[in-house]
Amino acid sequence: MKLPSFFLAGQVSSLTSYFSLLFFMVFLPACLLVYQVFPRKWKKYFLLLASWGFYWLVSGTLIVFLVLSSLSMFFFGLVLENMQQKMDAGLEGLSRQEKKEKKKPYLAKQRAVAILAAILHVGLLLVLKYSGFFATNVNSLLSVMGTGMSVPVPDFVKPLGISFYTLSALSYILDVYRGTIKADHNPLRLSLFLSFFPQIVEGPICRYRETAQQLWDAGPIQYDHFMKGLQRYLYGMMKKIVVADRLNTAVNIIYTNSTQFDGGVIALSAVAYTLQLYMDFSGSMDAVVGIAQMFGITMPENFKRPFFSKTISEFWQRWHITLGAFLRDYIFFPITTADGMKKLTKKARKKFGNHFGPVLTGSIALFFVWVCNGLWHGAGWHYIFFGMYHLVFILIGNFIMPATVWMNKHLVRPWQAWAYKIFRIVRTCILVCIGEMFFRADSLRIGLGMAKTMFTRFTLKSFNGQLLQTLQIDIHDVIIVLVTTAIVFVISVLNENGYEVREHLAVKKLPVRWAFYLGLVLYIIIFGAYGFGYLPVDPMYAQY
Amino acid sequence: MKIKWNRCIKVLGFLGVLACCLVFLSFLFLPKNDTDEEGMKDLKSSSVVAEPENTIDVIVVGDSNSYDSFHPMYMWKQYGITSFDCGTAAQELCYTLPILRNIFKTQSPKVVVLETDCIFREFSVPYQIMYKVNEAVPAFAYHDRWKNLDLRDFNFTVGYTNISTTKGYEPSDLTDPGTAEGWMEETAQLEPVPSESVRYLKSIQQLCQKNGAKLLLASAPNTVSWNYKKHNATQQLANELGLDFVDLNLCQDEVQIDWSTDTRDKGDHLNNDGAKKVSKYFGQYLLDHGLATDHREDACAAEWDKCLQDYYTVSADLDQ
Question: Is residue B17 part of a domain?
Answer without folding.
Answer: no
